[in-house]
């Protein structure tokens, strides 16, 4: 049986999340990814460029990739939304569950440096143009 897009994209260690500038220029970023039912979740710094771009345009492109952001599979379109505090906490939990050692260390370090509002979760629905 073939994997669903959510299964395929969440199976690897990294996901290439591409957001788009106002002029349409793609900005690819490798991120950690976890599965939340039929959605993908990532976790990032609240003031990052990708968050600013997503506030303006929820269109994304997704592909499995390596740590350097080199795609290792076919890209698919998607829609992303920024999560509230409860959703962000859930995304942190899913990330630490998938990446038990490094995930816990980075989430803890981020809370110490930035506080709980310094990062934000992003929910992504793949396959939606």
From TrEMBL:
Superkingdom, taxonomy of origin: Bacteria
Coiled coil: none
Gene3D superfamilies: Electron Transport, Fmn-binding Protein, Chain A
GO terms under cellular component: cytosol
Molecular function via GO: coenzyme F420 binding; oxidoreductase activity, acting on the CH-CH group of donors
Listed SUPFAM superfamilies: FMN-binding split barrel
InterPro entries: F420H2_bilvrd_red/Heme_oxyg, PPOX_F420-dep_Rv2061_put, Pyridox_Oxase_N, Split_barrel_FMN-bd
Residues in Pyridoxamine 5'-phosphate oxidase N-terminal domain copies: 9-85
Keywords, comma-separated and alphabetical: Oxidoreductase
UniProt keyword Oxidoreductase, yes or no: yes
Oxidoreductase is among the record's keywords: yes
Name of protein: Pyridoxamine 5'-phosphate oxidase N-terminal domain-containing protein
Species of origin: Kutzneria albida DSM 43870
């Amino acid at each position: 049986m073939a994997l669903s897009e959510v299964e395929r994209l969440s199976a690897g260690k990294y996901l290439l999340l591409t957001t788009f500038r106002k002029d349409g220029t793609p900005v690819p970023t490798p991120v950690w990814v976890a599965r939340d039912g039929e959605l993908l979740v990532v976790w990032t710094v609240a003031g990052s460029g990708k968050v600013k771009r997503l506030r303006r345009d929820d269109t994304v492109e997704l592909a499995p990739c390596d740590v350097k952001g080199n795609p290792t599979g076919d890209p698919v379109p998607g829609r992303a939304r920024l999560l509230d505090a409860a959703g962000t906490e859930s995304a942190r939990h899913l990330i630490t569950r998938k990446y038990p050692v490094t995930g816990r260390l980075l989430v803890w370090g981020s809370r110490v440096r930035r506080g709980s509002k310094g990062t934000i979760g992003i929910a992504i629905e793949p396959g939606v143009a």
